[in-house]
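Design job #97: recover the sequence.
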């Protein structure tokens, strides 16, 4: 459809001010193809080019924000679904033993003279110990911990941190192991690494047996 001449003049003015072809079409309620035909040959001033560049950057930021918001929404939905699912599964002693064996097999030392588990993830350490204590009769006096720290750590602070996470008294911690570090790369909020040992060969052997059987288990239809 034909447009009044003043509409084209307004379009040209907006373009020279640094509006994009799409923005002009939306602002004047004209077809984007028409806006493109009218404005594709317009020479833009430095100021107009700067505005377009700024709008492009703002558009990118907006697009990133929208995608981030969508990801967060999906995460919330998935975690809600997971929470509802887990509430239907009571944590029995047998299930605790199974979960403990799987976590141990992924991160633990497979020497069955004792139960050994090492990680720098406080949540993983805490969950492993919780499963161990729920699934088995644990003698707390047999638990030992060794903190691996770098030179930029405070030894006492890290021991207290891991003692709080594990519920293991400080006097059951070995002398900390100082890991070599050049100091050029400092991991922010890195708590060091914790090596746990529970001196009970029978539990270590049971964990291995549970994992071995489970890994081959196919069930009966």
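Job complete. Output follows.
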């Amino acid at each position: 459809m034909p447009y009044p001449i003043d509409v084209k003049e307004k379009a040209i003015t907006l373009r020279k001010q640094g509006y994009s072809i799409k923005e002009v079409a939306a602002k004047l309620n004209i077809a984007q193809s028409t806006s493109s035909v009218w404005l594709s040959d317009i020479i833009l001033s430095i100021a107009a080019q700067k505005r377009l560049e700024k709008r492009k950057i703002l558009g990118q930021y907006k697009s990133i924000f929208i995608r981030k918001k969508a990801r967060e929404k999906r995460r919330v939905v998935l975690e809600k679904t997971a929470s509802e699912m887990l509430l239907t599964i009571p944590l029995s002693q047998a299930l605790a033993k199974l979960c403990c064996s799987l976590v141990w097999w992924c991160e633990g030392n497979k020497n069955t003279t004792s139960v050994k588990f090492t990680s720098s993830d406080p949540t993983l350490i805490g969950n492993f110990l919780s499963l161990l204590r729920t699934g088995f009769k644990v003698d707390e006096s047999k638990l030992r911990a060794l903190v691996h720290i770098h030179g930029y750590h405070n030894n006492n602070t890290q021991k207290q941190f891991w003692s709080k996470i594990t519920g293991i008294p400080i006097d059951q911690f070995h002398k900390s192991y100082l890991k070599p570090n050049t100091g050029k790369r400092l991991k922010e909020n890195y708590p060091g690494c914790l090596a746990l040992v529970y001196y009970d060969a029978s539990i270590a052997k049971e964990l291995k047996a549970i994992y071995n059987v489970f890994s081959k288990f196919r069930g009966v239809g």
